[in-house]
Amino acid sequence: MHELSIAMSIVEMAVEEAALRGNVKIQAVHLRLGPLSGVVKEALLSSYEMACETTPLEGSRLLIEEVPVEIFCPTCQTARPAQSIQWFSCVECGTATCDILHGKELEVFALELAE
Amino acid sequence: MNPQPRMVEVRKNILKQNDVIAAALRERFRTQGILAVSLVSSPGSGKTAFLEETLKLLRPHYRVAALVGDLATENDAARLARSGAPVKQITTGTLCHLEASMIQKALDGWDVGKLDFLFIENVGNLVCPSSYDLGEDLRLVLLSVTEGEDKPLKYPTIFNSADVAVITKIDLAAAVEFDEFTANRNIQAVRPGMEILKVSAKTGEGMPEYLGFLKRRQLGPQVGQRTASAV
Protein backbone atom coordinates (compact mmCIF):
# COMPACT_ATOMS: atom_id res chain seq x y z
CA MET A 1 0.00 0.00 0.00
CA HIS A 2 2.21 2.79 -1.31
CA GLU A 3 -0.65 4.76 -2.82
CA LEU A 4 -0.68 7.36 -0.05
CA SER A 5 2.91 8.39 -0.72
CA ILE A 6 2.13 8.52 -4.44
CA ALA A 7 -0.97 10.62 -3.77
CA MET A 8 1.17 12.97 -1.70
CA SER A 9 3.62 13.30 -4.60
CA ILE A 10 0.73 14.15 -6.91
CA VAL A 11 -0.53 16.84 -4.53
CA GLU A 12 2.97 18.23 -4.04
CA MET A 13 3.47 18.45 -7.79
CA ALA A 14 0.08 20.10 -8.34
CA VAL A 15 0.73 22.66 -5.58
CA GLU A 16 4.02 23.57 -7.29
CA GLU A 17 2.29 23.92 -10.65
CA ALA A 18 -0.38 26.13 -9.07
CA ALA A 19 2.29 28.31 -7.51
CA LEU A 20 4.01 28.70 -10.87
CA ARG A 21 0.75 30.05 -12.24
CA GLY A 22 0.21 32.61 -9.52
CA ASN A 23 -1.42 30.28 -6.98
CA VAL A 24 -4.43 29.55 -9.12
CA LYS A 25 -7.07 27.28 -7.67
CA ILE A 26 -6.84 23.72 -8.99
CA GLN A 27 -10.22 22.04 -9.37
CA ALA A 28 -9.05 18.73 -10.73
CA VAL A 29 -5.96 16.72 -11.52
CA HIS A 30 -6.02 14.43 -14.54
CA LEU A 31 -3.87 11.33 -14.25
CA ARG A 32 -3.02 8.55 -16.68
CA LEU A 33 -2.62 5.21 -14.95
CA GLY A 34 -1.43 1.96 -16.47
CA PRO A 35 -1.99 -1.45 -14.86
CA LEU A 36 1.79 -2.03 -14.88
CA SER A 37 2.44 1.01 -12.70
CA GLY A 38 1.78 -1.13 -9.65
CA VAL A 39 -0.72 1.41 -8.35
CA VAL A 40 -4.31 0.51 -7.49
CA LYS A 41 -6.88 3.04 -8.71
CA GLU A 42 -9.31 2.76 -5.78
CA ALA A 43 -6.54 2.99 -3.19
CA LEU A 44 -5.10 6.00 -4.97
CA LEU A 45 -8.48 7.78 -5.07
CA SER A 46 -9.08 7.39 -1.35
CA SER A 47 -5.48 8.32 -0.56
CA TYR A 48 -5.79 11.42 -2.71
CA GLU A 49 -8.54 12.86 -0.58
CA MET A 50 -6.41 12.35 2.51
CA ALA A 51 -3.33 13.81 0.84
CA CYS A 52 -5.25 16.95 -0.14
CA GLU A 53 -6.33 17.79 3.40
CA THR A 54 -4.96 21.13 4.66
CA THR A 55 -3.33 21.82 1.28
CA PRO A 56 -4.42 24.31 -1.42
CA LEU A 57 -5.83 21.28 -3.25
CA GLU A 58 -8.38 20.44 -0.59
CA GLY A 59 -11.70 19.76 -2.29
CA SER A 60 -10.13 19.07 -5.70
CA ARG A 61 -10.84 15.91 -7.68
CA LEU A 62 -8.49 13.29 -9.05
CA LEU A 63 -9.66 12.05 -12.44
CA ILE A 64 -8.00 8.85 -13.53
CA GLU A 65 -7.79 7.74 -17.13
CA GLU A 66 -6.88 4.07 -17.26
CA VAL A 67 -4.42 3.15 -19.97
CA PRO A 68 -4.60 -0.39 -21.34
CA VAL A 69 -1.48 -2.47 -21.95
CA GLU A 70 -0.24 -2.06 -25.49
CA ILE A 71 2.64 -3.97 -27.03
CA PHE A 72 4.58 -3.72 -30.26
CA CYS A 73 3.86 -6.95 -32.11
CA PRO A 74 6.98 -8.13 -33.98
CA THR A 75 4.83 -10.24 -36.32
CA CYS A 76 2.19 -7.65 -37.22
CA GLN A 77 4.86 -4.92 -37.07
CA THR A 78 2.47 -2.60 -35.32
CA ALA A 79 1.14 -1.56 -31.92
CA ARG A 80 -1.50 -3.94 -30.58
CA PRO A 81 -3.33 -4.41 -27.30
CA ALA A 82 -1.96 -7.23 -25.15
CA GLN A 83 -4.27 -10.18 -24.46
CA SER A 84 -4.28 -9.20 -20.78
CA ILE A 85 -1.99 -8.07 -18.01
CA GLN A 86 -1.38 -11.78 -17.37
CA TRP A 87 -0.73 -12.66 -20.97
CA PHE A 88 1.69 -10.54 -22.93
CA SER A 89 0.88 -11.52 -26.46
CA CYS A 90 -0.75 -9.87 -29.46
CA VAL A 91 -4.57 -9.99 -29.51
CA GLU A 92 -4.49 -10.45 -33.28
CA CYS A 93 -1.84 -13.09 -33.97
CA GLY A 94 -0.88 -14.35 -30.51
CA THR A 95 2.85 -13.57 -30.76
CA ALA A 96 4.32 -13.28 -27.26
CA THR A 97 6.42 -10.20 -26.65
CA CYS A 98 7.76 -8.02 -23.88
CA ASP A 99 8.05 -4.94 -26.03
CA ILE A 100 5.64 -2.85 -23.99
CA LEU A 101 4.54 0.49 -25.40
CA HIS A 102 1.93 1.49 -22.85
CA GLY A 103 0.69 0.31 -19.47
CA LYS A 104 3.35 1.62 -17.10
CA GLU A 105 1.96 5.18 -17.01
CA LEU A 106 1.71 7.05 -13.77
CA GLU A 107 1.61 10.63 -14.95
CA VAL A 108 -0.35 13.78 -14.46
CA PHE A 109 -1.21 15.06 -17.91
CA ALA A 110 -3.52 17.98 -17.20
CA LEU A 111 -4.76 20.28 -14.48
CA GLU A 112 -8.13 21.97 -14.35
CA LEU A 113 -7.82 25.51 -13.10
CA ALA A 114 -10.61 27.76 -11.84
CA GLU A 115 -10.61 31.17 -13.41
CA MET B 1 -21.38 33.49 -12.33
CA ASN B 2 -19.75 30.08 -12.43
CA PRO B 3 -16.03 30.15 -12.93
CA GLN B 4 -15.02 28.50 -16.19
CA PRO B 5 -12.43 25.75 -15.68
CA ARG B 6 -9.33 26.01 -17.80
CA MET B 7 -7.30 22.95 -18.72
CA VAL B 8 -3.54 23.12 -18.77
CA GLU B 9 -1.33 20.33 -20.00
CA VAL B 10 1.49 19.31 -17.71
CA ARG B 11 2.77 15.76 -18.38
CA LYS B 12 4.57 14.98 -15.15
CA ASN B 13 5.77 11.54 -14.23
CA ILE B 14 4.90 11.13 -10.57
CA LEU B 15 7.89 8.92 -9.81
CA LYS B 16 10.30 11.11 -11.74
CA GLN B 17 12.26 12.01 -8.63
CA ASN B 18 12.83 8.33 -7.88
CA ASP B 19 13.74 7.61 -11.48
CA VAL B 20 16.26 10.44 -11.61
CA ILE B 21 18.04 9.10 -8.50
CA ALA B 22 17.85 5.54 -9.88
CA ALA B 23 19.39 6.63 -13.18
CA ALA B 24 22.25 8.34 -11.33
CA LEU B 25 22.84 5.19 -9.24
CA ARG B 26 22.81 3.02 -12.38
CA GLU B 27 25.35 5.29 -14.04
CA ARG B 28 27.53 5.18 -10.92
CA PHE B 29 27.39 1.37 -10.77
CA ARG B 30 28.16 1.13 -14.46
CA THR B 31 31.19 3.40 -14.40
CA GLN B 32 32.53 1.61 -11.31
CA GLY B 33 32.06 -1.82 -12.85
CA ILE B 34 29.62 -2.98 -10.19
CA LEU B 35 26.81 -5.36 -11.04
CA ALA B 36 23.87 -4.29 -8.86
CA VAL B 37 21.36 -7.08 -8.38
CA SER B 38 18.08 -6.65 -6.54
CA LEU B 39 15.87 -9.39 -5.15
CA VAL B 40 12.10 -9.13 -4.86
CA SER B 41 9.63 -11.74 -3.64
CA SER B 42 6.86 -12.39 -1.17
CA PRO B 43 7.83 -12.77 2.49
CA GLY B 44 9.16 -16.23 3.26
CA SER B 45 10.24 -17.21 -0.24
CA GLY B 46 13.80 -17.72 0.91
CA LYS B 47 15.41 -14.45 -0.18
CA THR B 48 17.72 -14.16 2.79
CA ALA B 49 18.87 -17.81 2.75
CA PHE B 50 19.45 -17.55 -0.99
CA LEU B 51 21.37 -14.30 -0.63
CA GLU B 52 23.41 -15.59 2.31
CA GLU B 53 24.49 -18.56 0.19
CA THR B 54 25.20 -16.30 -2.80
CA LEU B 55 27.46 -14.05 -0.70
CA LYS B 56 29.22 -17.03 0.87
CA LEU B 57 29.96 -18.61 -2.52
CA LEU B 58 31.01 -15.41 -4.30
CA ARG B 59 33.08 -13.87 -1.51
CA PRO B 60 36.28 -15.94 -1.94
CA HIS B 61 36.56 -14.76 -5.54
CA TYR B 62 34.74 -11.43 -5.75
CA ARG B 63 34.21 -8.27 -3.75
CA VAL B 64 30.58 -8.42 -2.67
CA ALA B 65 28.27 -6.45 -0.40
CA ALA B 66 24.57 -6.34 0.36
CA LEU B 67 21.85 -3.93 1.37
CA VAL B 68 18.78 -5.44 2.94
CA GLY B 69 15.41 -3.78 3.42
CA ASP B 70 12.91 -4.67 6.12
CA LEU B 71 10.14 -2.85 7.92
CA ALA B 72 11.68 -3.62 11.28
CA THR B 73 14.46 -5.70 12.90
CA GLU B 74 18.04 -6.13 11.78
CA ASN B 75 17.78 -9.92 11.81
CA ASP B 76 18.39 -10.31 8.09
CA ALA B 77 21.50 -8.13 8.12
CA ALA B 78 22.86 -10.22 11.00
CA ARG B 79 22.15 -13.42 9.07
CA LEU B 80 23.76 -12.11 5.89
CA ALA B 81 26.79 -10.80 7.80
CA ARG B 82 27.61 -14.42 8.71
CA SER B 83 28.85 -14.74 5.15
CA GLY B 84 31.64 -12.30 6.03
CA ALA B 85 30.49 -9.79 3.41
CA PRO B 86 29.77 -6.16 4.34
CA VAL B 87 26.03 -5.79 4.91
CA LYS B 88 23.84 -2.81 5.70
CA GLN B 89 20.26 -2.97 6.91
CA ILE B 90 17.77 -0.42 5.63
CA THR B 91 14.90 -0.26 8.10
CA THR B 92 11.94 1.19 6.27
CA GLY B 93 9.62 1.63 9.26
CA THR B 94 6.14 1.33 7.84
CA LEU B 95 7.18 1.67 4.21
CA CYS B 96 6.48 -1.49 2.23
CA HIS B 97 9.23 -1.13 -0.37
CA LEU B 98 12.66 0.35 -1.02
CA GLU B 99 13.07 3.56 -3.00
CA ALA B 100 16.12 4.78 -4.91
CA SER B 101 16.80 7.53 -2.35
CA MET B 102 17.16 4.89 0.40
CA ILE B 103 19.80 3.07 -1.64
CA GLN B 104 21.60 6.34 -2.25
CA LYS B 105 21.54 7.18 1.46
CA ALA B 106 22.66 3.70 2.50
CA LEU B 107 25.64 3.93 0.14
CA ASP B 108 26.77 7.23 1.68
CA GLY B 109 30.25 6.82 3.06
CA TRP B 110 30.57 3.32 1.65
CA ASP B 111 33.42 2.76 -0.73
CA VAL B 112 31.35 0.78 -3.22
CA GLY B 113 33.85 1.55 -5.98
CA LYS B 114 35.80 -1.47 -4.80
CA LEU B 115 32.91 -3.87 -5.35
CA ASP B 116 32.17 -6.38 -8.08
CA PHE B 117 28.63 -7.18 -6.92
CA LEU B 118 26.14 -5.22 -4.85
CA PHE B 119 23.02 -7.12 -3.83
CA ILE B 120 19.87 -5.33 -2.74
CA GLU B 121 17.26 -7.37 -0.91
CA ASN B 122 13.92 -5.59 -1.13
CA VAL B 123 11.17 -5.78 1.48
CA GLY B 124 9.17 -8.99 1.12
CA ASN B 125 6.28 -7.71 -0.99
CA LEU B 126 5.05 -8.60 -4.47
CA VAL B 127 3.13 -5.39 -5.08
CA CYS B 128 4.75 -2.07 -4.23
CA PRO B 129 8.42 -2.72 -5.17
CA SER B 130 7.36 -3.04 -8.80
CA SER B 131 6.79 0.73 -9.02
CA TYR B 132 10.29 1.72 -7.92
CA ASP B 133 13.44 1.57 -9.98
CA LEU B 134 16.42 1.19 -7.63
CA GLY B 135 19.15 1.67 -10.22
CA GLU B 136 19.89 -2.04 -10.30
CA ASP B 137 21.15 -3.76 -13.46
CA LEU B 138 19.38 -6.97 -12.75
CA ARG B 139 16.17 -7.59 -10.86
CA LEU B 140 15.54 -11.13 -9.71
CA VAL B 141 12.04 -12.16 -8.72
CA LEU B 142 11.98 -15.19 -6.45
CA LEU B 143 9.21 -17.75 -6.41
CA SER B 144 9.45 -20.63 -3.95
CA VAL B 145 7.97 -24.00 -4.84
CA THR B 146 5.79 -23.83 -1.71
CA GLU B 147 3.95 -20.74 -2.95
CA GLY B 148 2.00 -22.18 -5.82
CA GLU B 149 2.50 -22.04 -9.56
CA ASP B 150 -0.01 -19.24 -10.12
CA LYS B 151 1.94 -16.52 -8.28
CA PRO B 152 3.06 -14.94 -11.59
CA LEU B 153 -0.57 -14.62 -12.72
CA LYS B 154 -1.62 -13.15 -9.38
CA TYR B 155 1.21 -10.61 -9.35
CA PRO B 156 1.99 -10.00 -13.03
CA THR B 157 3.33 -6.49 -12.50
CA ILE B 158 6.25 -7.50 -10.30
CA PHE B 159 7.16 -10.40 -12.59
CA ASN B 160 6.99 -8.04 -15.52
CA SER B 161 9.30 -5.54 -13.82
CA ALA B 162 11.96 -8.22 -13.19
CA ASP B 163 14.64 -9.61 -15.51
CA VAL B 164 15.05 -13.14 -14.20
CA ALA B 165 12.81 -15.52 -12.26
CA VAL B 166 14.47 -17.69 -9.63
CA ILE B 167 12.52 -20.69 -8.41
CA THR B 168 13.71 -21.35 -4.86
CA LYS B 169 13.47 -24.27 -2.40
CA ILE B 170 13.64 -26.65 -5.34
CA ASP B 171 14.62 -29.43 -2.89
CA LEU B 172 11.00 -29.35 -1.67
CA ALA B 173 9.47 -29.56 -5.15
CA ALA B 174 8.46 -33.22 -4.97
CA ALA B 175 7.10 -32.94 -1.41
CA VAL B 176 4.74 -30.09 -2.36
CA GLU B 177 3.99 -31.54 -5.81
CA PHE B 178 5.32 -28.44 -7.52
CA ASP B 179 4.17 -28.32 -11.13
CA GLU B 180 7.20 -26.91 -12.91
CA PHE B 181 5.60 -26.93 -16.34
CA THR B 182 2.70 -24.74 -15.18
CA ALA B 183 5.00 -22.41 -13.25
CA ASN B 184 7.19 -21.90 -16.33
CA ARG B 185 4.18 -21.35 -18.54
CA ASN B 186 2.76 -18.73 -16.16
CA ILE B 187 6.08 -16.91 -15.93
CA GLN B 188 6.39 -16.87 -19.72
CA ALA B 189 2.83 -15.56 -20.06
CA VAL B 190 3.50 -12.49 -17.91
CA ARG B 191 7.07 -11.96 -19.12
CA PRO B 192 7.75 -13.64 -22.47
CA GLY B 193 11.35 -14.78 -22.86
CA MET B 194 12.16 -14.44 -19.17
CA GLU B 195 15.13 -16.50 -18.02
CA ILE B 196 14.21 -18.98 -15.28
CA LEU B 197 16.71 -20.42 -12.81
CA LYS B 198 15.99 -23.14 -10.26
CA VAL B 199 17.90 -23.27 -7.00
CA SER B 200 18.05 -24.71 -3.53
CA ALA B 201 20.10 -22.64 -1.10
CA LYS B 202 19.89 -25.60 1.30
CA THR B 203 21.27 -28.38 -0.90
CA GLY B 204 23.19 -26.17 -3.32
CA GLU B 205 21.28 -27.52 -6.31
CA GLY B 206 21.29 -25.03 -9.18
CA MET B 207 23.62 -22.63 -7.37
CA PRO B 208 26.62 -23.20 -9.76
CA GLU B 209 24.41 -22.41 -12.77
CA TYR B 210 23.05 -19.31 -11.05
CA LEU B 211 26.52 -18.10 -10.06
CA GLY B 212 27.74 -18.75 -13.60
CA PHE B 213 24.90 -16.59 -14.86
CA LEU B 214 25.82 -13.76 -12.45
CA LYS B 215 29.49 -13.92 -13.39
CA ARG B 216 28.69 -13.70 -17.08
CA ARG B 217 26.50 -10.69 -16.40
CA GLN B 218 29.23 -9.08 -14.30
CA LEU B 219 31.59 -9.23 -17.28
CA GLY B 220 28.99 -8.84 -20.00
CA PRO B 221 28.04 -5.79 -21.98
CA GLN B 222 24.62 -5.90 -20.34
CA VAL B 223 25.93 -4.04 -17.28
CA GLY B 224 24.18 -0.72 -17.18
CA GLN B 225 21.79 -1.67 -19.95
CA ARG B 226 18.69 -2.06 -17.82
CA THR B 227 16.48 0.92 -18.38
CA ALA B 228 14.15 2.61 -15.94
CA SER B 229 11.26 0.35 -15.06
CA ALA B 230 8.83 3.23 -14.81
CA VAL B 231 7.75 5.28 -17.78
Low-confidence stretches of chain A: none
Strand order of the largest sheet of chain A: 5-4-3-6
Q: What is the tally of beta strands of chain A?
A: 7
Which bin fits the share of residues in helices of chain B? 25-40%
Question: What structural class do the secondary elements of chain A suggest?
Answer: alpha+beta
What is the CA-CA span between the terminal residues of chain B? Answer: 41 Å
CATH fold category name of chain B = Rossmann fold
Average pLDDT of chain B, rounded to a whole number, is 90
Mean pLDDT reading of chain A:
94
The Rg value of chain B, from CA coordinates, equals 19 Å
Please give the alpha-carbon distance between the first and last residues of chain A: 36 Å
Question: Describe it for me?
Answer:
The complex is a heterodimer of chains A (115) and B (231). With 115 residues, chain A is of the alpha+beta class. Chain A has a domain at 3-67 and 102-113: hypothetical protein PF0899 fold. Chain A is built from two helices and seven strands. In chain A, the strands form two sheets. A four-stranded antiparallel sheet of chain A has the order 5-4-3-6, with no helix packed on it. Chain A has a three-stranded mixed sheet with strand order 2-1-7, with helices on one face. In chain A, helix 2 (41-52) links the parallel strand 1 (26-33) and strand 2. In chain A, helix 1 (3-20) crosses helix 2. The N and C termini of chain A lie far apart (36 Å). The mean pLDDT of chain A is 94. By secondary structure, chain B is of the alpha/beta class. Chain B has one domain (16-219): P-loop containing nucleotide triphosphate hydrolases (Rossmann fold, 3-Layer(aba) Sandwich), CATH 3.40.50. Chain B has helices spanning 16-31, 47-58, 75-81, 100-106, 151-154, 156-161, 180-190, 207-219, and strands at residues 5-13, 35-40, 64-70, 87-91, 117-121, 138-144, 164-168, 195-198. Chain B has a seven-stranded parallel sheet with strand order 4-3-5-2-6-7-8, sandwiched between helices. In chain B, helix 1 (16-31) packs across helix 4 (100-106). The longest helix of chain B is centred in the first third of the chain and has 16 residues, at 16-31. Chain B is globular. Chain B starts with a strand and ends in a 12-residue tail after the last helix. The model of chain B has no long low-confidence stretch (mean pLDDT 90). Classes of the chains: A alpha+beta (115), B alpha/beta (231). Strand 7 (106-114) of chain A pairs antiparallel with strand 1 of chain B, so a sheet runs across the interface.
